[in-house]
Amino acid sequence: MSQFPLFKVFMSPDVIKPLSDKLLSGFITQGPAVEEFENKLQKLFNHPYILTLNSATAGLTLAIRLIKDKLKLNNDDEVLSCPLTCMATNLPIMANYLKIKWVDIDPKTGCINLEDLEKKLTNKTKIITFVHWGGYPVDVNELDIILERNKERLGFKPYVVEDCAHAFLSELNEKFLGTQNFGVFSLQAIKHLTTGDGGLIFCPDKEFYEKAKLLRWYGIDRDKRNYKKTDLRLEHDVEDWGYKFHMNDINATIGLNNLPYIPELIEKNRRNARIYDEELKDIPGIVILNKFEENKKSAYWLYTILVEKKSEFIEFMKEKNITCSQVHQRNDVHTCFNEFKSSLPILDEFEKKIVCIPVGWWLEENDIKYISEQIRVFFG
User: Cα separation of 39 and 336, whole Å?
Assistant: First the structure.
């Protein structure tokens, strides 16, 4: 195992007893722990429309389904998205039978390129989705200006779905990401906050929230079981089909016990990133992406650099027990996306150099300086 891993699971030492109690309680499905977890998240984010789910993939699938139903979209309608992300960002588009139009990346951030996005807006563009790469905020305020500017030309304003899998507690202008549009978060094992596995969907209004609450559990209203007041196990009429996307009390119990630690852990990520910014700033042969900015507070799930001799660099760092990786393969190279292929010249060049180095809370200042020194040796 690498001495300096790229990812590490955080698990609160407080979780053992409450989790054991929950496992032996006789009630482990969605219940009071899920409700308590959602309430605490709503208070943390100051956002009333948060639901837990069993994965972020479920959240993205659900968000696009909600928009598709609202707008009565058909299979010719398009979603603008960026391929530099986990497959979880883009497979939900396919699952909803919509077309993808790829948008290039911003070479300074690795995030979606808003200039290219504006050029690709058409009257078929109904949804825009993207990941906040490594936790660094896409400027959703600038995106909103672009969409308002094109609203008259398009005849409508597309919905925005933010993939916040990397961006728990990331901020743009002192607002948490995911709270201004649809926001979807991952609670998978190696994310900032883990529930073992799970996800969150932030809805922009009560109407979407109420429908999401139904669709995450088959379309059944859990508050209206007891068919004609004769059988507690039977449900009333299901008006719209849904999914088995809900979280259970086991996962929620883990989340409840991990949650109090997360702000401090993310501050450690930010501290480590600032040390890198200083240590790496004068090394020829690398470019630092997403340096610390007061108005754009990344959660630094990733610390991304561009390097010459990428393969040799990764192998050199491996020999020093330092794990480095591109982390996500660009989605548009996969066969399942063949019909959507397009020219993305910035990403073509960017991918030749992109590498992520360890930045997480498990690293101390001396660790960051050691890793920086090895980078200095490689390029020396």
Answer: 39
DSSP string, 30-92: SSHHHHHHHHHHHHHHT-S-EEEES-HHHHHHHHHHHHHHHHT--TT-EEEE-SSS-HHHHHH
- 8 A C-beta contact, residue 202 and residue 163: no
We report the CATH number of the domain holding residue 318 as 3.90.1150.10
Question: What pTM value is reported for the model?
Answer: 0.96
What phi and psi, each to the nearest 5 degrees, are found at residue 227?
-55, 115
- pLDDT for 124: 97
Are 287 and 222 found together in one domain? no
- The alpha carbon of 293 is separated from its chain's Cα centroid by a whole number of angstroms, namely 20
Domain count, the chain: 2
Q: What does the pLDDT look like over 349-373, one tens digit per residue?
A: 999 999 999 999 999 999 999 999 9
| Cα–chain center distance at 116 | 22
Residues 254 and 275 in one domain: no
- pLDDT tens digits along 71-87: 999 999 999 999 999 99
